[in-house]
From TrEMBL:
Domain Chorismate mutase: 1-91
EC number: 5.4.99.5
SMART domains: CM_2
InterPro entries found in the cross-reference section: Chorismate_II_sf, Chorismate_mutase-related, CM_dom_sf, CM_II_prokaryot
Pfam families listed in its UniProt record: CM_2
Coiled-coil region(s): none
The keyword Electron transport is annotated on this UniProt entry: no
Class of the enzyme per the UniProt entry, highest EC level: isomerase
Keywords carried by this UniProt record: Isomerase
Protein's organism: Natronospira proteinivora
Domain of life: Bacteria
Record-given protein name: chorismate mutase
């Protein structure tokens, strides 16, 4: 019975992983659109104030969900870095 429980739980985690990938793809589409508009208007690729707002928000949201805010911050900083590289067309999605 325990192996069946583990399989079911792993199946659930696999489904969540697939949803995460889909959400990340949607996020990158949004980043691409934003960066296109920024290029047209000559704006900087990254905005420190915007990133700080996001970090504050995910800290708060993460705490409410029982997640480590530092871990979330690390994850989002990686997303910011990748988004910048993506925007500069150094990375193919």
């Amino acid at each position: 019975m325990r192996e069946l429980d583990i399989k079911q739980l792993r199946d659930t985690v696999d489904e969540l992983d697939a949803q995460l990938v889909q959400l990340l793809a949607q996020r990158m589409q949004g980043v691409e659109q934003i960066q296109s508009l920024k290029r047209l208007s000559g704006q900087a690729c990254r905005e420190a104030e915007r990133e700080a707002d996001i970090i504050r928000r995910i800290h708060s949201t993460g705490r409410r969900q029982g997640l480590d805010p530092d871990w979330l911050e690390s994850l989002f900083r990686k997303l910011f870095e990748f988004s910048e590289r993506f925007a500069r067309e150094e990375v193919t999605p």
